[in-house]
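Limitations
The structure tokens in this dataset are predictions for the assembled complex, not deposited experimental models. Users should treat interface geometry with appropriate caution, especially where small molecules or nucleic acid strands are included. An illustrative entry is reproduced here so readers can see what is and is not provided.
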Amino acid sequence: AQSVTQPDIHITVSEGASLELRCNYSYGATPYLFWYVQSPGQGLQLLLKYFSGDTLVQGIKGFEAEFKRSQSSFNLRKPSVHWSDAAEYFCAVGGNTGGFKTIFGAGTRLFVKA
Amino acid sequence: SQTIHQWPATLVQPVGSPLSLECTVEGTSNPNLYWYRQAAGRGLQLLFYSIGIGQISSEVPQNLSASRPQDRQFILSSKKLLLSDSGFYLCAWSVGQGSYNEQFFGPGTRLTVL
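Predicted assembly:
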């Protein structure tokens, strides 16, 4: 079955500290992987996406993610967190087979403390 | 450039009343359209998606319905709202014959059913 698991419901980091948000997926075909961010009361915005090629992808706002096929993971990282990064983060997987539905994880809420 | 609009932004409705939420997309043709719901503190639940005018796929059996009267218009409706219909409703669009492209989300509608 196709699924996305974000094991951490919420994470708290100090401003300036590094961040890693975990994402594991199960997908029966070549995965297309996404990270979205949602600020409170807003829609989702794409941070970055992986289709093929270099397994380390750069996104907006200083975020990056690494695709590890052997671990079925696509973890999101940022070397130094800013207070404005406090939001909810969603990992998602799609593909060019199996229809039009993108599978979203349950989300990880990031809290940033001063 | 493409934009997506949702209205209203906020809605408070009594139990048993009807509902109509509208979503329109500008700047693209024949988009795939999606309705999602977020209950408080929970992830995204796909409600409906549409790959063309009059083509609606329902993901969750419930008292909601969706329609696509025009290429870039997607409407979410209910004849009688339930308390459990409260939540944050997001419309999104994408292009392509699959789920390999990113989705672009609207600003959302906060629905409270009392």
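Some entries come with short summary sentences. For this one: Chain B has no helices and eleven strands.
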